[in-house]
Task: inverse folding
């Protein structure tokens, strides 16, 4: 053990949900970031109070490296180079020191563990064979983020934060971001007076780049000055947040140049996404997920389907096309701004009913009003999952098949247990690496009522 009481030398145990390896010291559990199970490392302790139930730590030196360790592709997110500079690594690429193949193996272990512990289900017995790479992924799996957010530090420099920290570390290129985002050279803009920047790249025919500047109220006109320095192909808008975002109806979006929305195109359908409205982040995610959901539900002509947590209608459009004029797609989205986009995106489908509201209440209300039952459901909730109220509304809806798109294995496992208790069996599991170099993963599960 080192003489510095904040540094411990430990052997790393199993991978844990959230991007950690588990280590133990004098009976206490330590969740360690930036290591690989099996390694012997020195860690700098964080959140390590005497009374804390568990501690956290960051790897600062590797004594016995895993065979799966590779040089991190991004200095700002590399814990070893950051330790040498006396700063914390920024979040967002916490698996970048692990070979891609092993990242996927670790995600598979975590998925299996979560499903067993919280869902009481053996993943392998339900067809899980491992985390797969989406078709079309590049060899290095960089440049995939079509959406990225940055902060600005007190000196007006583009910055990002370390995991669970309010520190701001200056950054330049972000290797996971789409090349067009790096081409903007946001780090060269005058950013004093801006608190946050959100950038999105569209995929449609006239796909654009939209830069949103959130002002911090210290320099009037800061967003306008920054926007003028952007390349002419970029659109820009300022966002004033009144306790929330534009998407959830509590922000004001003001056009600075170009458009305030982006166009996206997936499997023959065009979508418009305004401001910070939700869209899948990985460039391959929309097409990959649409293909999976349509294959699992295979809705016939005249079917009645619900798209829950529908966003701007990514799944609603192909579902509406498949069920035709005699069918119904009930598209429920909570954020008012995003739901308005869904109205525009689904205009050509009279069989699509767009309802803005929380799934927990809106699903049963809409079905009761129409005296309708459902054939099938796709749900794609936020990280917190659906929860008991939404699961029970789905069970009451009459749906026989449920395609569950999830970005969190823990909430997926918890909801799986509730669905199983209500008579739904998990028949297919597809876990896709749509967040390479991070600990996140996307799951598409098919449940069938028995
Ligand atoms: C992971 S996104 C999925 C959006 C869409 N399926 C897609 O792929 O583009 C989750 C969406 O659920 C919405 N949302 C979150 N909680 C909700 C709730 N309780 N009821 C309805 N919508 C909710 C969010 O605004 C967000 O648009």
Result:
């Amino acid at each position: 053990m080192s003489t510095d009481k904040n540094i411990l030398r430990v052997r790393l145990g199993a991978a844990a949900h959230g991007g950690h390896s588990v280590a133990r010291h004098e009976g206490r559990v330590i969740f360690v970031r930036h290591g690989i199970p099996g390694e012997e490392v020195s860690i700098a302790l964080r959140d390590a109070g005497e009374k804390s139930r568990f501690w956290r730590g960051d790897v600062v030196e590797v004594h016995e490296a895993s065979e799966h360790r590779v040089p991190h592709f991004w200095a700002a997110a590399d814990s070893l180079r950051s330790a040498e500079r006396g700063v914390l690594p920024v979040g967002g690429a916490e698996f970048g020191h692990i070979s891609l193949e092993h990242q996927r193996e670790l995600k598979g272990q975590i998925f299996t563990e979560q499903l067993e512990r919280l869902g009481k289900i053996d993943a392998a017995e339900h067809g899980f064979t491992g985390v797969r790479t989406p078709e079309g992924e590049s060899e290095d799996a960089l440049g995939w983020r079509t959406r990225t957010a940055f902060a600005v530090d007190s000196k007006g420099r583009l910055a990002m934060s370390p995991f669970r920290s309010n520190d701001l570390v200056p950054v330049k290129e972000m290797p996971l971001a789409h090349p067009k985002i790096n081409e903007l050279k946001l780090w060269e803009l005058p950013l004093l007076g801006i608190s946050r920047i959100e950038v999105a790249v569209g995929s449609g025919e006239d796909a654009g780049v939209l830069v949103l500047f959130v002002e911090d109220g210290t320099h009037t006109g800061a967003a306008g000055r920054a926007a003028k320095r952007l390349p002419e192909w970029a659109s820009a808008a300022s966002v004033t947040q009144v306790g929330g975002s534009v998407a959830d109806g509590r922000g004001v979006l003001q056009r600075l140049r170009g458009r305030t929305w982006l166009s996206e195109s997936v499997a023959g359908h065009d979508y418009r996404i305004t401001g910070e409205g939700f869209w899948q982040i990985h460039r391959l995610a929309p097409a990959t997920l649409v293909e999976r959901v349509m294959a699992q539900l295979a809705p016939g002509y005249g079917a009645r389907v619900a798209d829950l947590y529908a966003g701007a209608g990514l799944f609603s459009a192909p579902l509406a096309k498949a069920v035709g004029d005699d069918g119904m797609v009930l598209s429920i989205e909570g954020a008012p701004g995003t739901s308005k986009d869904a109205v525009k995106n689904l205009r050509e489908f009279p069989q699509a009913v767009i309802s803005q509201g929380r799934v927990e209440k809106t699903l049963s209300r809409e079905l009761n009003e129409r005296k309708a039952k459902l054939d099938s459901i796709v749900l794609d909730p936020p990280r917190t999952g659906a929860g008991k109220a939404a699961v029970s509304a789905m069970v009451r809806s009459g749906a026989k098949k449920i395609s569950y798109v999830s970005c969190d294995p823990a909430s997926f496992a918890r909801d799986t247990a509730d669905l199983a208790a209500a008579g739904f069996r998990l028949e297919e599991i597809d876990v896709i690496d749509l967040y390479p170099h991070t600990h996140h993963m996307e799951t598409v599960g098919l449940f069938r009522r028995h």
Remarks:
- The CA atoms of residues 45 and 57 lie 4 Å apart.
- The chain has a mean pLDDT of 94.
- The radius of gyration is 23 Å.
- The domain at 124-135+282-449 is CATH 3.40.50.150 (Rossmann fold).
